[in-house]
Amino acid sequence: MAFPKKKLQGLVAATITPMTEDGEINFSVIGQYVDYLVKEQGVKNIFGKSTLGMSLHVSSSVFRRYISPGYQLDQVIIHVGALSLKESQELAQHAAEIGADGIAVIAPFFLKPWTKDILINFLKEVAAAAPALPFYYYHIPALTGVKIRAEELLDGILDKIPTFQGLKFSDTDLLDFGQCVDQNRQQQFAFLFGVDEQLLSALVMGATGAVGSTYNYLGKKTNQMLEAFERKDFSLALNYQSCFLIYFSRLGFGVSQTKAIMTLVSGISMGPPRLPLQKASREFTDSAEAKLKSLDFLSFTDLKDGNLEAGS
């Protein structure tokens, strides 16, 4: 099946759902948020209702606000995974109705599918609810507990799901990821890597893009890493990736922490998460701000001659 949109590639920001202090979705800042991604970070694709966006904790109605002719986004992919098939199908239909560019689904994680065939049957029924939309599988076994290898799942998947377009691979098993790429080169799938701190390794394995939380505020620098990789300037690309590793080790990357860091870096209030997650503490926020300043991150300067002074 051919779709009019170009292949999803490059950086895709896993969206943060902005909240008010009383736990309601803060619709008023979404336009500002989208402008920041496009103009300041150079990220023009978004992945909505992601883990970072508290996928199962917020209404899908929020993503109608991301789909506007006034925005300069290239593609809006909406995650429609849920614990029940019926709910996933309804979310898929809603995504099609509001004009999403594609849908993605995780494996059900309470009553789990334990075999490839069972999981494929679930995904097939969800995809069929929005037959005009590209379909992506969101592989994140650490959270779903579904250990079916992505390489196994992709074997023959187009025979079952003709709208299948690619994989969001959020796992550290690079052997599995590499086999996905190697065994499906003729299919022209999108292979989107989801572990930000391992992106450079995934690029070597054949990743065509990446979906992640840090691209909300590290998009510009990650794009520069991608450009260095394309130029085969691997030393410079490694310097950028090393910065991420230092950054992660010092600050962490949970939902609460990411919301606080995004607020600091962008100046846009992302608010607290919803229960059972807790708001980042004042101690964390003060410490994060100090660390970001010590890295010159709040006024991050460009890398020159392959040196990463801010991350050293």
> What's the story with the biggest beta sheet?
8 strands, parallel, barrel
Unreliable stretches (pLDDT < 50, length at least 5) are: 300-312
Strand order of the largest sheet: 1-2-3-4-5-6-7-8
Sketch the topology as an H/E string, one letter per element.
EHEEHEHEHHHEHEHEHHHH
Report the count of strand segments. Answer: 8
Distance between the termini: 48 Å
Please state the CA-atom Rg, rounded to the nearest Å: 19 Å
Overall morphology: globular
| Helical proportion, percent range | 40-55%
Number of helices: 12
Report the mean per-residue pLDDT as an integer.
Answer: 86
Proportion in β-strands: 5-15%
Helix and strand content put the structural class at alpha/beta
Describe this structure as you would to a colleague:
- There is one protein chain.
- With 312 residues, this protein is of the alpha/beta class.
- Helix content is 40%, strand content 12%.
- Strands 1-2-3-4-5-6-7-8 form an eight-stranded parallel barrel, surrounded by five helices.
